[in-house]
Amino acid sequence: LTEKILQHKTGFEGYFWSALGAILLLIDGVRLIALKTVTTTEEGRSFIANLSRIEALRASERRKKITSGEPISRHLRELLYEVDGRLVESAGLEALEKMVGLARRRQQGEALIVAERGGGKSQLFARLEQRLEDKMVLLDCPPGGGKALLIEFASALDLDATDLSPETVTNRIAEGRISAVGIDNFHRLARPAMGGQQEIDEMIALIRKVKAELFWFLGFDWAAWQYISRVRANRLFVQEIIQLPLWSEAQIEELIEHRCHHAGIEPDFSELILPRHFEDSSFDTLEDQNRNGFFRILWNASDGNPVVALQLWMECIRVAEDGTILVSLPKLPSTVDFEDASITVLLILRVIAQSGYASQQEIIDSLRFPGPDVAGALHLAESNEWIEYVDGRYRLSWKWFRTVTRVLARQNLLVRRTLVV
Q1: Running DSSP on this structure, what letter comes out for residue 112?
Q2: Residues near 130 by Cβ (< 8 Å), separated by ≥ 6?
Q3: CB 4 within 8 A of CB 17
Q4: Residues 10-43: pLDDT tens digits?
Q5: What's the rounded Cα separation, in Å, for the pair 325 and 328?
Q6: Strand, helix or coil at 204?
Q7: 263-307 pLDDT tens trace
Q8: Considering only CA atoms, which of 8, 12, 418 is closest in space to residue 222?
Q9: Cα–chain center distance at 343
């Protein structure tokens, strides 16, 4: 069209092509305004996200035969995962400032920090520890339960775990002038089963018996928090419940830029073929348009989870013969086999999602299913890479994390997190 306008600058044909160009620009502008208006509502964001995933899959299938380059090496994957100290400062910043303010009040209290697995909760605890310098004790609750946590807590305070009374803890806190204690993954003390909250109740009871000017920050995964908050609604009396939002599109893009800089690569977006509704004529170059559209698709595909986004990113890039890092659209795992899974498998996956880590016996105790049924379902899930076996327990694999949680939410087995624009 641009060539036609340049070729016919005068006369009726010039008027015709110029008018046609103006109409197309007007339509494009209306389309962009409509898209931005639709994405101001959760229903609209959900519709656009689902449409994006479908078109991204179709585009990926169309390009499958012409995709060039080789998958990135294991070494490059490790570099992309490796933490180099650079942070996305805006992620969780509001929550961090609130936590710092609570800790510096020098008052007794508790705050619950809730975030989806991979949503930056552990990083937030580390940033808080850095801000408070040597005035904070930070622990990561092990999957082993309350006894294992008490041993780590006693070790951090240089106390005997067999004599960890409220009085000894209070005295040591006062001696060290400690203003905060953070326990990440506190939900690991609970299990979605009858009586599965006993250890979390016992630990909270100990916390409240410690009479010191100390603020406790307890970290929960989003899926675990949904059932714990219901079964313990009358017992969780805390000053603050801080829920970390899912990451924005800009934050996901900044994370990928940091990771690429650390790995020493410059991705090339020129080969992308974007779904129609992601094309934006406001960009000066095709490279910029493709880049903007790609990160919107990646954000939708990951639902704002930074670890899921990073996992998808590593599947999107490949190395050409000349060393160029080429980018393709995200290839999301197919849900065909997963959609046909039995309710037994889905319920087992829900227990694993809610627990973070769960052993076979813990799953049996939670669901009261026969052992052979649970063993068979776990074998099916592990063979399909929906879950992975780590240190004697099962957890959702990162490759399938987003797909599994979406399907469980669609089956009303989990509460779905919503994107925040």
Answers
A1: E
A2: none
A3: yes
A4: 666 666 767 777 777 777 667 666 666 655 554 5
A5: 10
A6: helix
A7: 999 999 888 877 766 666 667 777 888 888 899 889 888 889 999
A8: 418
A9: 25
**Tokens 């960890």 found at:** 164
Residue 362 and residue 355: Cα distance in Å, rounded? 10
Q: Give the per-residue pLDDT at 343.
A: 92
Q: Is 84 helix (H, G, I), strand (E, B) or coil?
A: coil
Model confidence band, residue 65 (pLDDT cutoffs 50, 70, 90): very low
Strand partners, 88: none
- The three-class DSSP label of residue 73 is coil
Integer CA distances (angstroms), 268 to 65, 135, 148, 322, in order? 19, 46, 48, 12
**How buried is 14 (Cβ within 10 angstroms: 0-12 exposed, 13-18 middle, 19+ buried)?**
middle
Q: At what angle do helices 42-63 and 286-302 cross, to 10 degrees?
A: 120
- Cα–Cα distance measured from residue 372 to residue 387, given in angstroms and rounded to the nearest whole number: 18
Contact 239, 111 (CB under 8 A): yes
Half-sphere exposure of 119 (CA within 13 A, CB side): 28
User: Measured between alpha carbons, how far is 241 from 111 in angstroms, rounded to an integer?
Assistant: 6
Phi, psi angle pair for 347, to nearest 5°: -65, -40
200: amino acid identity, one letter: I
Q: Are 103 and 215 in contact (CB under 8 A)?
A: yes
Q: What is the pLDDT of residue 421?
A: 38
Q: How confident is the model over 303-339, as pLDDT tens digits? A: 899 999 999 999 999 999 888 999 988 877 777 767 7
> What was the pLDDT predicted at 321?
87
User: Side chain identity at 306, as an amino acid letter?
Assistant: P
User: What is the C-alpha separation between 31 and 37, in angstroms, rounded?
Assistant: 10
Distance CA 340, CA 16 (A): 55
Tokens of 85: 């100290």
